[in-house]
């Protein structure tokens, strides 16, 4: 696209060509967070008058909508700043509390009981028509003993008043009888529940007593040391064995680093069904010990005294979190930083070296699909594998980690699709093995490629080519040492089952980037 990518927010004129100072962000895969982004953008859709726009895989939103710096940070979970409005920071929604005023209004509008309506009927009286004249004294009607008006009202309608009163009393008595019956039933239920509660109290007390006795027996017969982070970090040898960190100071620094984004990542995952029983300290120890020592989930369940399903949930959460959080770091150092920490052996022969490349393969279980079997079979390893590209700086700092690819992919194809060449600058040098036939790609970025020379049909190398091969091999071996250091995470030494295929790429990246935290860069130590 010649015009670059445009921000998908209506009214925002930023493009990737005109606004290079801001970050460009994809929409999250999490459906809960993705819906919040779409609702805040409020872009009209095409399926109806009130429909919202649906983002595609190519849709981007610039970092100016997340914070004032123009670059989205890890804590910015949803866009906030728009041309017409500003949102507060995204937080989890609180449950709604019923409105007591509305409840009172609803109760006030309830219809009156029937016996209240009957009482109102008693206020109705019967009157004679106004045109009817009362009989005059001495008239034939008066002399015949005609009753007065008051007597007519009292005697002619006495049945109406008496009937209404009797009906109201009968209704009231019936309701009182029903209430008395319900009250008696509740009293009996209460007595029964109190007896059951007392029996359960005695049973709980008995079980607690049995539990205390069982704990005493276990503590007396089988001494058990809790496998906790507090116990492990007190012994430097245990800390190095189970986590890979060579000092407590480096581990505590890493702990504070991951703790900063732990709560934010939990909120971004949406509501959880159950919180893990373990604390954050022990969750981190569980994940690091499985990466470093290769402990199985059942073994970890025994060590932490939890169910194996809890181990699986903690493992899945932390591997995804560490892969996402560590990827936020800019671990591709600048040219000035690389030169500042350039070892003497590179300054003399290859002073412009920016990165040293090499590929490594991880064994995987044979896939069920025969096409995937063919794509992942490595003739070099004689096994189904996944291949990854690793790049280090001259002093041994891991500066580039690619996504995993099928084991049959060549080093050249993997390097081309990894995006490494986009990071190179004019004047840089790339050092690699003979299998990296990427001269054109590297030179297109204005950089140089240093690889050992080929025979080219000759029986043997010339003296000059042999000297060059020795010089490159002498310094390129450091990347193989870093890969060997990464393979100290024993989880990478085994064969990954097909059930772990979704988390394999995250495990590979976490192990590679942890090498920068566990100890000093390789050549800085020497």
From TrEMBL:
Alphabetized UniProt keyword annotations: Coiled coil, DNA-binding, Metal-binding, Zinc, Zinc-finger
Signal sequence annotation: none
Entry annotated with the keyword DNA-binding: yes
CDD domains, alphabetized: bZIP
Cofactor annotation: a divalent metal cation
GO molecular function annotations of the record: DNA binding; zinc ion binding
Keyword hit for DNA-binding: yes
Domain named THAP-type: residues: 1-82
Coiled-coil intervals, chain numbering: 165-217
Pfam family, one: DDE_Tnp_4
InterPro entries the UniProt entry points to: HARBI1_dom, THAP_Znf, Transposase_HTH_dom
PANTHER family: SI:CH211-262I1.5-RELATED (PTHR23080:SF133), THAP DOMAIN PROTEIN (PTHR23080)
Protein name: Putative tick transposon
């Amino acid at each position: 696209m010649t015009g670059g990518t445009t921000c998908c927010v209506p009214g925002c004129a930023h493009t990737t060509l005109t606004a290079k100072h801001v970050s460009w962000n994809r929409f999250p895969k999490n459906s809960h967070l993705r819906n919040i982004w779409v609702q805040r953008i409020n872009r009209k859709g095409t399926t109806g008058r009130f429909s919202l726009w649906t983002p595609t895989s190519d849709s981007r939103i610039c970092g100016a909508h997340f914070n004032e710096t123009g670059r989205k940070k890890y804590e910015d979970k949803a866009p906030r700043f728009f041309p017409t409005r500003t949102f507060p920071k995204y937080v989890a929604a609180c449950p709604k509390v019923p409105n007591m005023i509305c409840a009172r209004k609803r109760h006030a509008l309830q219809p009156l009981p029937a016996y209240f309506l009957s009482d109102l009927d008693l206020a109705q009286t019967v009157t004679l028509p106004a045109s009817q004249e009362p009989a005059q004294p001495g008239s034939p009607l008066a002399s015949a003993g005609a009753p007065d008006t008051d007597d007519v009202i009292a005697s002619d309608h006495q049945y109406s008043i008496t009937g209404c009163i009797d009906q109201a009393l009968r209704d009231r008595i019936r309701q009182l009888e029903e209430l008395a019956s319900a009250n008696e039933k509740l009293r009996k239920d209460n007595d029964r529940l109190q007896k059951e509660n007392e029996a359960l109290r005695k049973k709980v007390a008995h079980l607690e007593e049995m539990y205390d006795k069982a704990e005493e027996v276990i503590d007396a017969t089988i001494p058990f040391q809790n496998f906790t982070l507090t116990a492990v970090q007190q012994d430097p040898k245990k800390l190095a064995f189970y986590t890979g960190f060579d000092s407590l100071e480096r581990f505590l620094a890493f702990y504070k680093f991951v703790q900063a984004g732990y709560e934010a990542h939990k909120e971004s995952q949406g509501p959880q069904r159950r919180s893990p029983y373990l604390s954050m300290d022990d969750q981190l120890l569980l994940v690091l010990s499985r990466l470093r020592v290769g402990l199985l989930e059942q073994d970890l369940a025994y060590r932490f005294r939890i169910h194996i399903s809890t181990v699986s949930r903690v493992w899945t959460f932390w591997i995804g979190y560490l892969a996402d959080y560590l990827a936020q770091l800019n671990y591709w150092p600048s040219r000035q930083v690389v030169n500042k920490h350039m070892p003497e052996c590179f300054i003399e022969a290859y002073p412009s070296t920016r990165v040293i490349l090499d590929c490594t393969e991880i064994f995987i279980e044979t896939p069920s699909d025969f096409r995937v079997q063919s794509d992942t079979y490595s003739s070099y390893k004689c096994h189904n594998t996944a291949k990854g590209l690793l790049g280090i700086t001259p002093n041994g700092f891991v500066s580039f980690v690619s996504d995993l690819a099928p084991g049959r992919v060549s080093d050249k194809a993997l390097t081309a699709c990894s995006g490494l060449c986009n990071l190179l600058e004019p004047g840089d040098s790339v050092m690699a093995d003979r299998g990296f036939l990427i001269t054109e790609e590297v030179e297109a970025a204005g950089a140089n490629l240093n690889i050992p020379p080929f025979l080219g049909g000759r029986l043997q190398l010339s003296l000059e080519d042999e000297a060059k091969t020795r010089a490159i091999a002498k310094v390129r071996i450091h990347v193989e040492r870093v890969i060997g250091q990464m393979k100290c995470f024993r989880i990478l030494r085994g064969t990954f089952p097909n059930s772990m295929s979704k988390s394999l790429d995250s495990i590979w990246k976490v192990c590679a980037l942890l090498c920068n935290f566990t100890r000093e860069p390789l050549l800085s130590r020497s």
